[in-house]
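Pipeline run #58 for the internal structure catalog. This entry was flagged by the ingest filter as a single-chain record with no existing model, so it goes straight to prediction. Upstream metadata was stripped on purpose; only the residue string is passed forward. Reviewer on rotation: M.T. Logging verbosity set to normal.
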Amino acid sequence: MIGRLNHVAIAVPDLEAAADQYRNALGAKVGAPQDEHDHGVTVVFIELPNTKIELLYPLGENSPIQGFLEKNPAGGIHHICYEVDDILQARDHLLETGARVLGTGEPKTGAHGKPVLFLHPKDFNGCLVELEQV
């Protein structure tokens, strides 16, 4: 069921500074900021040869990233995203195994325009997991 690692998401307190650091210090290809209103974040993707890094910054006062940054003022890894071929089949299988899907259990559209779901971190060794249909 699980496919490639799609990205590692890092919450950052200063999106522009973080993007500049990847661009200038590491020579990475850095995308433009994208507001994702459904998820309450502004994202910037860093393109790597084998995956992506997603920089997350709060969008609006109800952003889930704001709470994360209050607990982790310097930022930090927020979640990892794996690809799946069929997100509904993956969801149903995970529910059968006792995993918890966050929210309503219905996929939302993610930053890549594809369906995504998040899995409870307590079910995956303390790591928030995002699944993205490819």
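catalog note: The two ends are 12 Å apart (CA to CA).
catalog note: The first strand starts at residue 5 and ends at 11.
status: ready for reviewer M.T.
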